[in-house]
UniProtKB/TrEMBL annotation:
It comes from the Bacteria. Residues 393-415 are annotated as: Disordered. Residues 393-402 have a biased composition (Basic and acidic residues). The lineage of its organism: Bacteria, Bacillati, Actinomycetota, Actinomycetes, Streptosporangiales. SMART domains: VWA (SM00327). This is Uncharacterized protein with von Willebrand factor type A (VWA) domain.
């Protein structure tokens, strides 16, 4: 046996490693953490293409190629090439006939010349009158037959792609086969309309006439699609001409079909195709700007491709409600951009499909949402981004190794010391005793233990904390461009507590005109509130309840805001807004600050604006509570919050 090795060209590399769908989620996460929605983040990812897959095109790359193809097609030529060629052949035949008649002095020759002079200006009408003319010139008769053959080929090629070559040297039997094919095709469509069509009927039809359909359709639906798109392109070609050109060419088409005995069959076929595919742009004009005259079949092919490219461009843009990659017709992609583009599209579909199947994305009532699993992943990404800016020496945990039996086992042991309360490591203790030497007890061997043989299991005690992160959701956060940083910070802190300090009780509270507890799975898709009011009073009330539910936990309160309090919660539960802040709003808010102080909760405020009133308010909070005030840039907010949280936990 002989083997030949070479580069693989039949589709994507079968040995290539599978694309890591988590990388796609991380790529989306950059947009989501910057304030984008999941659906827009996914759409942008698919447009750019897969990160790290340079050999794969994104939707934007395909869209640029489609637009280039459309531009080239529009500049390819003019639509009236067949009409121009028909006029030229007609004029040539008339000129050859006149040259034959001119030397003849007979009255018959003059009468014939008068008839030629009286021919209509319309090409189709002139050809109709000359169809019964008895040509004196053999050259003129041959030219006129060439004209009729041209029209027959072009008209049929405009309806059935590929018949122009099949009829290059027509004979009566070839035309009779075309007529029989048309009749059988119409019968097949009628049978399908009655619900009696089977695949066997189609296979029998293709066994007889398959050579007339170079597209090789596999079933009747594919054949109808091919013929309908071609017929619609013919109608668009006529609609794109001037009224005079349209009338002349329509007359030529009808006249040619009548002479070929195909008029009735073509009318039946056109009606059936339109009834099945009314969605096609049957009469939409199209503009071609080229200089080269195109034959009728070539013009129809160009318009057919333009229609495909127009629909494909719309699908590739993915900018309409409910857009999905499944809307993109792979057959249209293959026709327009080739097999490799189909592989690239399938790779994009696989990413979209895998994100859903692996539990990162969820479609609910037509809306794309992130799952809790995806939110955890984005939180980890945000946390890695924060830690990448921190010095390694500042990333300490808050473990204590001097603790008693309530601690967590570390998996290691150490020699027992007086006062240790850690559990005894029995196995290591006995092993130490055996190594020291056994003691004979009659017929048995015992183990004598000394103080030095005892080992205890090492533990660490982790202090639990009740963490409250209060995040401003007011409209000003979006106006100042700080909202995305605040959301990213909340995700990072949530991920840090969940991964490093699972014993901590964290609660994230968003506040605008009202405050509310934010669940972890809604953080990524969270958006700012387009309302007036910064109700820190309500947020501190909710945070206080969280701390009261965990009285033995260390209280940690972090506030992220860009404005002083402008709203408070009234006794009836409604929000009262006033700007500049009213005395009552400030008084009630500071009262909650005092309650936090009595709970031993330090409030650290991260100030995202430099307003004088905000500075005055946070300075008063720091004076009453003893907490600290930070004024980070939006880009460094996550670093400040996370590092301050770690500092507080280590200090505790």
């Amino acid at each position: 046996m002989a083997f030949r090795y070479g580069e693989y060209h039949d589709g994507p590399d079968p040995l290539a490693p599978p694309y890591d769908v988590r990388s796609a989620l991380d790529e989306m996460g950059d947009a989501i953490l910057s304030g984008s929605t999941p659906v827009h983040a996914l759409r942008d990812l698919l447009k750019r293409g897969l990160p790290g897959a340079q050999d794969r095109r994104g939707l934007d790359d395909m869209l640029r190629e489609v637009r280039r193809r459309r531009r080239d097609l529009r500049e390819r030529g003019r639509l009236d090439g067949t009409l121009e060629r028909a006029r030229a052949l007609l004029d040539k035949a008339i000129g050859q006939e006149r040259a034959e008649l001119f030397p003849d002095p007979s009255d018959d020759a003059r009468l014939r010349e008068a008839g030629l002079d009286a021919l209509p200006e319309d090409t189709a009408s002139a050809i109709q009158e000359l169809s019964t003319y008895d040509w004196r010139s053999a050259a003129a008769r041959q030219t006129f037959e060439e004209l009729r053959d041209l029209l027959r080929r072009e008209v049929l090629d405009s309806q059935f792609k590929g018949l122009r070559d099949a009829l290059a040297n027509p004979d009566p039997q070839a035309m009779e086969r075309i007529r029989q094919m048309m009749s059988d095709l119409n019968d097949l469509l009628d049978k399908d309309a009655r619900g009696e069509h089977t695949q066997a009927d189609f296979d029998d039809f293709m066994s007889k006439y398959g050579d007339l359909f170079p597209e090789k359709p596999r079933n009747l639906d594919e054949l109808v699609d091919i013929l309908a798109r071609r017929a619609a392109a013919t109608q668009r070609m006529l609609a794109s001409m001037t009224p005079r050109q349209r009338e002349e060419l329509s007359n030529l088409i009808n006249q040619t079909l009548d002479q070929a005995g195909l008029s009735d069959q073509m009318r039946r076929l056109g009606e059936a195709l339109y009834a099945r595919r009314p969605d096609l742009a049957w009469n939409a004009p199209e503009r071609l700007t080229g200089e080269e005259p195109l034959a009728m079949g070539d013009a129809v092919t160009a318009l057919e491709e333009l229609a495909d490219l127009t629909q494909l461009e719309t699908a590739l843009r993915q900018d309409y409600p409910g857009a999905r990659l499944d809307d993109i017709d792979e057959a249209a992609v293959r026709r327009a951009l080739g097999r490799s583009a189909v592989d690239d599209l399938e790779a994009l579909k696989r990413i979209e499909r895998e994100l859903e199947e692996q539990g990162y994305l969820l479609r609910r009532r037509g809306k794309l949402e992130l799952t809790p699993k995806a939110v955890r992943r984005l939180g980890e990404t945000a946390l890695r981004r924060v830690f990448s800016t921190l010095d390694a020496g500042r990333r300490g945990d808050h473990d204590q190794h001097d603790a008693g039996s309530a601690g967590e086992l570390t998996g290691s042991s150490r020699p027992w010391r007086f006062g240790d309360e850690q559990p005894l490591d029995v196995v290591r203790t006995l092993v130490n005793g055996v190594r020291s030497g056994g003691v004979a007890l009659g017929d048995r061997v015992g183990v004598r233990l000394s103080v030095d043989d005892f080992e205890v299991a090492e533990t660490e005690r982790r202090s639990a904390a009740a963490v409250c992160l209060l995040v401003d959701l007011s409209y000003s956060m979006a106006l100042r461009g700080t909202w995305a940083a605040a959301k990213q910070t909340a995700l990072a802190l949530q991920a840090l507590v969940a991964s490093k300090f699972p014993q901590d009780a964290v609660q994230i509270i968003g506040f605008s005109n009202y405050a509310r507890v934010l669940q972890p799975d809604e953080l990524a898709g969270l958006d700012w509130d387009m309302v007036q009011g910064t109700n820190l009073h309500h947020a501190l009330l909710i945070a206080g309840r969280h701390l009261d539910r965990h009285p033995d936990f260390e209280p940690v309160v972090l506030v992220v805001t860009d404005g002083e309090p402008t709203a408070h919660l009234m006794r009836n539960g409604r929000s009262a807004f006033e700007w500049p802040p009213s005395h009552e709003t400030l008084e009630l808010t500071l009262a909650e600050v005092d309650k936090m102080t009595r709970r031993r909760a330090t409030i650290n405020v991260f100030m995202l604006a430099a307003d004088d009133r905000l500075k005055e308010f946070v300075d008063e909070v720091a004076r009453r509570n003893g907490g600290r005030v930070f004024s980070p840039s939006a880009e460094r907010l996550g670093e400040y919050v996370v590092s301050d949280f770690l500092r507080l936990r280590r200090a505790r």
